[in-house]
Write a structure and sequence with these properties.
Blueprint (H helix, E strand, L loop, with lengths): L7 H20 L17 H24 L9 H12 L3 H20 L9 E3 L5 E3 L3 H15 L11 H15 L8 E5 L5 E4 L7 E5 L1 H8 L9 E3 L12
Parallel strand pairs: 3-5
Antiparallel strand pairs: 1-2, 3-4, 5-6
Helix pairs in contact: 1-4, 1-5, 2-3, 2-4, 2-5, 6-7
């Protein structure tokens, strides 16, 4: 499995579709459901929705950097990022929906205004990782799809688009392969028959088999291994959180 190259136009189209699906799901919530816990420890659904809106704005900042050449941080700093999420979490459902739509529109416009040559510009993520601007639409797609799952409102990893599951599983495996701090495991995708190894060992003692979306759920920390079969029948190791 090879890591797929970013395609900003294609990825932006996927973001639009995923955002519409997210908005449709969120619109079905009751007003009180926003304050209920999400599947992310310590965050309500309101925290997640506020994060998604501000995350869209953060990518507008990075595209501004790519387009103008003037360094524009993704977030001003960690403290202000966390404060914006905390302050936005308690909004009524209608305001969350408005914020999600408006911020998504701002990002879509920023993508449209980015000239072809700017996609090669190097920008720094909040984590300090340097990426090409061309990766930004796909990174937003990851946020929208996986946090849709994290809302805990009926959309699961099994519902993720098949092409996204293939691509994101490749990305995550690439980050875990050859990593000394990761348990050595052979992953077996029963959908395609493909096998990969994570961790530093060439011949792991443990093989974990299952459908692609179940593997993706486990390696992204969104399941404890439901739908997967370990051989030998041992508890699945704990993988490091995605960063």
């Amino acid at each position: 499995m090879s890591v797929q190259r970013p395609d900003p136009a294609r990825d932006a189209a996927a973001v639009r579709e995923a955002t519409e699906q997210l908005l449709e799901s969120v619109a079905t919530l009751t007003p009180s459901a926003v304050a209920e816990p999400s599947l992310l420890p310590g965050w309500t659904r309101g925290h997640l929705l506020a994060h998604l809106a501000r995350n869209a704005d953060s990518y507008v900042n990075l595209l501004t950097w790519a387009r103008t050449g003037e360094e524009t941080p993704q977030y001003a700093d960690q403290e202000s990022r966390d404060k914006d999420i905390e302050e936005g979490a308690g909004r009524p459902l209608g305001e969350h929906l408005d914020e999600l739509r408006i911020s998504a529109d701002r990002l879509a416009y920023a993508v449209e205004q980015t000239p072809p040559q700017a996609w090669a510009a190097q920008v720094s993520m909040r984590s300090g990782r340097v990426i090409a601007a061309a990766e930004i639409p796909y990174r937003r797609l990851i946020e929208v799809l996986l946090h849709h799952v994290d809302l805990g409102i009926g959309y699961t990893c099994a519902d993720l688009p098949a092409d996204f599951a293939v691509r994101e599983l490749a990305n995550v495996i690439d980050g875990l392969s050859g990593h000394e701090g990761v348990a050595a495991v052979r992953l077996h995708d029963t959908d395609s028959g493909e096998k990969w190894t994570i961790g530093a060992a060439n011949e792991p003692d443990l093989t974990v088999s299952g459908p692609r979306t179940a593997l993706l759920a486990w390696v992204t920390g969104r399941s404890k291994g439901e739908g997967l079969t370990p051989l030998p029948a041992l508890p699945l190791p704990v993988l490091p959180p995605l960063g």
